[in-house]
C-alpha cells in the first residue's frame, strides 16, 4: 500500500469512525491482558472488569506498576478487590515468558487472552537473541499466546464457551517495507543485524510478522468441536499513550504534537478495539483476521499479494522452529 492510500485510510478511520462502547457480558470469565499497567492495556482491563469478569490478570513487567493500575481500576469500577491479580511478565526475557506460561496452565480456566504489550523505538537495542522489537513484539508475544492456547482450548471444551486469543497489531503493517526479506537466508538473522538496519521501518515490520503469524496460527488451530478458540489480530488505531516514551527526536515531536494531538484517540477509546477483539460473542469470521475499527479489515498488499503469501510461508517455517528451540513442544498445540 502506498503512503498516500495509507494516510487517507488512517485519517478516515481516526476522524469519522466512532468505536462502539463495549457492552458484552464477561460474567464468570477469566481474562489476561499483557502490558496492562498503562495505556491501551490498562483501559481494556478497566472495561473488562466493568463488564463483570470473574478475574482479570494484569501481566506486567513491573509488579508495583501493575498494583498501582489495579488500585486505579478498583477505584473507578467499584469492583471487588480479589477480582484483579497482577502477574509478572517480561517479554524481553524468554524465561519470564515460559514461567508465565506455566502459571497460565495452572488456572482453572482461561476465557480470553489479550497480548497487548509492545514497544516502539527508533533506537537499536537487543533483547535475548534479536533486535528488541522482534523479541518483544513478535517472538515473545507469540510464545506467550501459544503457551496460553492449550488452556484456552481446554476452557472452550470444558465450559462450552468460545475462547479468544487476540494480538494487538498495528495498521502500520500496511506500509512496512521489510527490506530484510530481500536477502535469501534466515529472516531472523537478517532482522538481528544492527548494520544497515532501518529502525523507522522496524515497528511496522514487527506488526507485519505478527499478522503473518496470527493467520498461520488460526489456520493451524481451526475452530471445531475440539477447539472453539478465535485467534485474531487487531489495531486500536493511533492513540495518545506512552508508546513514544523512548522518542525524543524531531520526528517523534512532529508525530506526537501534530498527528497525534489532531487525530489520535484516547486510550479509553482505542481500548474498545481490544475488548472487541476478545468479546465473548465475537464472530467466527474474525478467526485469523485483521480487525480495524472493530470490524474485519483488509489485510493489505503486504499480506494479500504473491510476495506477501510467499513471505508468510517463509517466515512461519523458520519461526515455528525458532519457537521450538526456545520452548520445546510449544507448537504441538497446532496442526
Ligand atoms: N498507541 C498507539 O497509537 C498504538 C497504535 C497501534 C497499535 N498499538 C499497540 O498497542 C499496544 C499497547 O500500546 P500502548 O499504546 O498502550 O503503549 P504503552 O502505553 O507504551 O504501553 C505498552 C505496554 O507494554 C508494556 N511493555 C513494554 N515492553 C514490555 C516487555 N518487555 N515486557 C512486558 N511488557 C512490556 C509496557 O510496560 P511498562 O509500562 O513497564 O513499560 C506497557 O504496559 C502495543 O502493542 C502497541 O504496539 C498502539
From TrEMBL:
Oxidoreductase recorded as keyword: yes
Keywords assigned by UniProt, alphabetized: Oxidoreductase
Alphabetized InterPro entries for the sequence: NAD(P)-bd_dom_sf, SDR_fam
Single GO term (MF): oxidoreductase activity
Name of the protein: Short-chain dehydrogenase
Amino acid at each position: 500500500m502506498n503512503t498516500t492510500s495509507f494516510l487517507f485510510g488512517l485519517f478516515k478511520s481516526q476522524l469519522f469512525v466512532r468505536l462502539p462502547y463495549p457492552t458484552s457480558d464477561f460474567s464468570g470469565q477469566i481474562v489476561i491482558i499483557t502490558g496492562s499497567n498503562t495505556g491501551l492495556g490498562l483501559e481494556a482491563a478497566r472495561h473488562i472488569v466493568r463488564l463483570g469478569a470473574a478475574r482479570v490478570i494484569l501481566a506486567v513487567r513491573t509488579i508495583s506498576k501493575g498494583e498501582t493500575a489495579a488500585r486505579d481500576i478498583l477505584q473507578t469500577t467499584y469492583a471487588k478487590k480479589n477480582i484483579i491479580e497482577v502477574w509478572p511478565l517480561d517479554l524481553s526475557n524468554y524465561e519470564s515468558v515460559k514461567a508465565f506460561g506455566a502459571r497460565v496452565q495452572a488456572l482453572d480456566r482461561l476465557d480470553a487472552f489479550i497480548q497487548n504489550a509492545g514497544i516502539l523505538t527508533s533506537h537499536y537495542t537487543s533483547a535475548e537473541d534479536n533486535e528488541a522489537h522482534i523479541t518483544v513484539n513478535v517472538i515473545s508475544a507469540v510464545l506467550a499466546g501459544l503457551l496460553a492456547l492449550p488452556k484456552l482450548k481446554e476452557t472452550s471444551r470444558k465450559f462450552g464457551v468460545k475462547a479468544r486469543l487476540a494480538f494487538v497489531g498495528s495498521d502500520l503493517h500496511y506500509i512496512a517495507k521489510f527490506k530484510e526479506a530481500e536477502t535469501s537466508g534466515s529472516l531472523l538473522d537478517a532482522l538481528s543485524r544492527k548494520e544497515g538496519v532501518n529502525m523507522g521501518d522496524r515497528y511496522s515490520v514487527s506488526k507485519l510478522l505478527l499478522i503473518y503469524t496470527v493467520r498461520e496460527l488460526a489456520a493451524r488451530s481451526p475452530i471445531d468441536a475440539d477447539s472453539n478458540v478465535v485467534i485474531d489480530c487487531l489495531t486500536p488505531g493511533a492513540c495518545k499513550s506512552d508508546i513514544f516514551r523512548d522518542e525524543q527526536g524531531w520526528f517523534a515531536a512532529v508525530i506526537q504534537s501534530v498527528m497525534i494531538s489532531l487525530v489520535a484517540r484516547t486510550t479509553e477509546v482505542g481500548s474498545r478495539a481490544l475488548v472487541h477483539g476478545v468479546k465473548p460473542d465475537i464472530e467466527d469470521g474474525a478467526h485469523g483476521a485483521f480487525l480495524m475499527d472493530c470490524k474485519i479489515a483488509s489485510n493489505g498488499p503486504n499480506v494479500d499479494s504473491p510476495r506477501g503469501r510467499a513471505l508468510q510461508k517463509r517466515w512461519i517455517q523458520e519461526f515455528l522452529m525458532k519457537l521450538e528451540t526456545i520452548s520445546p513442544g510449544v507448537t504441538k498445540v497446532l496442526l
